[in-house]
Amino acid sequence: MGLLTPSLGYFVWALVAFIIVFLLLKKFAWKPILKSLNERETNISNAIASAEKVKAEMAQLQNENEALLAKAREERAQLLKEARDMKDKIINEAKEQAKLEANKVIAEAQAAIQAQKMAALTDVKNQVGKLVIEVSEKVLRQQLSGNGAQEAHIQGLVDTLKLN
Amino acid sequence: MTSGRLKSFSIAAFSLFCVLISFTAKAGGGGEEGKKFDAGKAMLDHIADAHEFHFFSVGDFHATLPLPVILYSPQRGLDVFMSSNFHHGHDDYKGYRMVGHDIVAVNEAGVVDETVTVLDFSITKNVAQMILALVVLFFLLKAVANKYKTGQGVTSAPKGFQNAIEPVVMFVRDDIAKPNLHHKANRYLPYLLTLFFFILINNIFGLLPGAANVTGNIAFTLVLGLISLVVILFSTNKHFWGHVFWFPGVPVPVKILMLPVELMGVFTKPFALIVRLFANMTAGHIIILSFISLIFIFAEMSKVAGFGFAPLSIAFAVFIYVIEVLVAFIQAFIFTNLTAVFISQAIGDHHYEEDVHH
To answer: Do residues B54 and B60 make contact, with C-beta atoms less than 8 angstroms apart?
Structure first.
């Protein structure tokens, strides 16, 4: 049957055609296409890998940032606390100082007042003494203007002395 | 999807239209001469190879595309001329005569000369169409490859026809080559890809209206089968031949029994490939032609029956045609996949074998 007997001509042409097409396609089509596809696949897998890496790095960075932030917050709190303590201490010290100064000033003032008071008192006493002597002089001059009075008074004075 | 379906449907319809025209012309011509319509002969005529592209005949006018005839005979040497010189088998030319689809030598008295051997290397319908299809295939793939070379599809998304070729290439690589051949896949990939596209483009071109039945020819499939056999045999190793000649793990009498079976298996595998592709593609064409022939068989009984049956017959033929488009891809896949499987058997998957023995 003609359908089942292979014809020589067609066989040869098909064989030649297949071999030529195979060689041509291998060189001009499959090589660049397969190379490009492989290249693209490696590009994509590399891109995915690097994206994953970046993601991991980002996560790590974020963790680090958070840790840093927490540490900074802690430090701030510490600083604030220290500052507050310092402030309290300074204020307390200032208060103490002020109290001491004030006490000192008060004491000095009191001493000055005392001294001036004493001075004033002495002055007053001297004045009073002087006044008394003047008044006494005046009174005595008045009373001892006569000889008898003078003698009487001297007599009186002598008496008192004797008594002592 | 819808546009693709519409496209294949319109191709099918157009193709049938053309087939119908050529049939109508033939049946009409036959009727005038008082001959009966012979469906079997007409079908075999359509699927067989020829020395010219025959589109239609009206009366004595034959619309054909003549093709070059290349003959070699040890006695007469090389002869090259156009097939139109035969005038469709009516005339002898340069001492050759066309009998049916064959060219035989005749002597000066006009009698067939059996002593002269004629080797027919003509560019027949099948050869011409195959070359045309392969030229188209080559330039298509070259254009796609050049696009890849410019970086399109490498650093950016593939565009245009790349999107049509790339999934097929990826399919052959990831679903045919790699699952069967593993790390050796890259070595066989150019061959498998060429095989797949070679069968596919010729299947598709064979489905075009008025086209030759390129892949449904035993000579064509024989070439592919023999190449597969050669590739398989070149891939074999000691392990494979050990299995063939001394089957492991069975008693000695069984080993001897297995030897011819295994040895035959080496050759039946590519033989199955040859017959499968040939039978599938031929069967598809025959079924379509049968449905069309039914119209003329009915028309010979009565004109009304012929016209009445035509729509039903065409509907069935279109249905089969669409299936044939599917078969064009499936057969290319099966041939390539089985070749890959046979190569992997020849290589022998040692990891798998070890798993079995443990």
So the answer is: no
Residue B180 CA from chain centroid, whole number: 25
CB count in 10 Å sphere of residue B13: 14
Residue B148 CB partners (closer than 8 Å, separation 6+):
A32, A33, A35, A36, A37, B154, B162
Residues of A in Cβ contact (< 8 Å) with B149 = 32, 36
Highest mean pLDDT among A151-155, B127-131, B208-212: B127-131
How many helices and strands, by DSSP H and E, does chain B display?
Answer: 11, 7
Same domain, B223 and B298: yes
H-helix segments, B33-124 = 39-47
Q: Determine whether A123 is exposed, middle or buried from the number of CB atoms within 10 Å of its CB (0-12, 13-18, 19+).
A: exposed
**Residue position matching structure tokens 């696009």:** B147
Alpha-carbon Rg for chain A, nearest whole angstrom, is: 64
Q: Is B193 in the same domain as B155?
A: yes
| Number of compact structural domains in chain B | 2
Q: Who contacts B212 (Cβ-Cβ below 8 Å, separation ≥6)?
A: B49, B50, B53, B125, B126, B128, B129, B206
Which H or E run includes B79?
Answer: strand B77-82
Please check whether residue B102 lies inside any domain of the structure.
Answer: yes
Classify the C-alpha dihedral B229-B230-B235-B240 as positive or negative: positive
Exposed/middle/buried for residue B255 (C-beta within 10 Å: 0-12, 13-18, 19+): middle
B193 touches chain A (CB under 8 A): yes
Domain end residue (candidates: B80, B104, B122): B122
CA dist B9 and B216 (Å) reads 22
* B 247-286 residues with CB < 8 A to A: 282
Residues B77, B155: one domain? no
Q: Is residue B156 part of a domain?
A: yes
Residues B250 and B231 in one domain: yes
Mean pLDDT, rounded, for A65-86: 94
B194–A22 C-beta distance less than 8 A: yes
Distance between CA atoms of residues A116 and A122, nearest Å:
10
Query: Is B95 inside any structural domain?
Result: yes
H or E element: which one contains B54?
strand B52-58
Strand blocks (E) in chain A = none
pLDDT for res B31: 37
* Highest mean pLDDT (candidates A117-126, B60-69, B87-96, B196-205): B196-205
d(CA B221, CA B325) in angstroms, rounded, equals: 19
Q: In chain B, which among 291-350 make CB contacts under 8 A with chain A?
A: none
B149, B153, B198 ranked by CB distance to A21: nearest: B198
Q: Are residues B77 and B173 in the same domain?
A: no
Confidence of residue B160 (pLDDT cuts 50, 70, 90): confident
User: Within a domain: residue B340?
Assistant: yes
- Residue B97 is part of which domain span? 68-122
Query: Torsions phi, psi of B81, nearest 5?
Result: -155, 170
Strands B52-58 and B61-66: antiparallel
